[in-house]
Amino acid sequence: MSDIVSVSDLEPLAMDGLFSMLGGELLGEGLGIGGEDSEEKARFGKEWFEGRFESFRQQICSSGVARHLSGDFPDDVAAVLGALGAFAAEEKALALIVAAIAVRRGVSAMCD
């Protein structure tokens, strides 16, 4: 799935969809998942994200990126992705999804 994840894939998704996409990426499975599988992937993705939330929060918030967000989803995801540094360089697809989750959740609230 890593080769086909893009911001345009992520933009229409609500949080459950983003967590499902994250879970699918972590489990090595692609798009086109069924309802029950989607729920399991969402649960797995959310648990993985929450377990690393403080690390992501520190990276994102210490970068000052929250002050520069425009409200445009693709631009904001790109800005947050840049704040994820080495993680983004090593795990591009995962970092893109993490950035989208952070933007959807609210970076400003996350950094307050």
Description:
With 112 residues, the protein is mainly α. The chain is 72% helix and 0% strand. The chain has helices at residues 7-10, 15-27, 35-62, 73-83, 85-90, 92-105, 107-111. α4 packs across α6 (92-105). The N and C termini lie far apart (34 Å).
**Biggest β-sheet description:** none
**Can you count the beta strands?**
0
Instruction: Spell out the helices and strands N to C.
Output: HHHHHHH
Termini separation comes to: 34 Å
Radius of gyration: 13 Å
* CA-based shape: globular
Provide the fold topology:
Layout: H1 7-10, H2 15-27, H3 35-62, H4 73-83, H5 85-90, H6 92-105, H7 107-111
Question: What is the gist of this entry?
Answer:
By secondary structure, the protein is mainly alpha-helical. It is built from 7 helices and no strands. Helix 2 (15-27) packs across helix 3 (35-62) and helix 4 crosses helix 6.
What distinguishing features does this structure have?
112 residues; mainly alpha
